[in-house]
# Entry
Amino acid sequence: MGNLSTSTHSYTIQETSKLTGLPESTLRYYESVGIIEPVERDASSKHRMYSEANLNVLDAIACLNATGLSLNDIKTYMQNREKGALAANDQVMLLKRQELRLKKEEESIKIREEYVNLKIAYWRAIEAGSEVESQKIAGDARQLTRRLKEIRK
# Structure
């Protein structure tokens, strides 16, 4: 979303959706489950009117979501944010858990990439008629499969 001005402009749900990249249904859902505070309503139309502060919160939520943080963890994070320093340790622990999940995910991706490279080598060995090489590569691929299963536990 970038830099938002500090004007007192209000945004409709459609405008907010375009500015944040979040679908209107997601904006409504976040409000209904308490991830964001209830949004002010226009006095006459009763339509949601998002403030600059709402946009900043939604930007933070979108970034947390992009890290793969679960909605429950995002909700906890947003609730803890209001507590400031009192919740700092809880925030750090929540983010450290996510960091560990991302490290496991990174390791899993590296192993899957290695597996794909082994399979390419396997099929090249098959194409070349090298039975010994293809069997060695197949064994290496089985070992990688075991490693991947261990990481996913």
In short: The chain is about 70% helix and 0% strand. Residues 1-6 have pLDDT under 50 and may be disordered. The helical segments are 13-20, 24-32, 52-66, 71-81, 88-128, 131-152. The two ends are 36 Å apart (CA to CA).
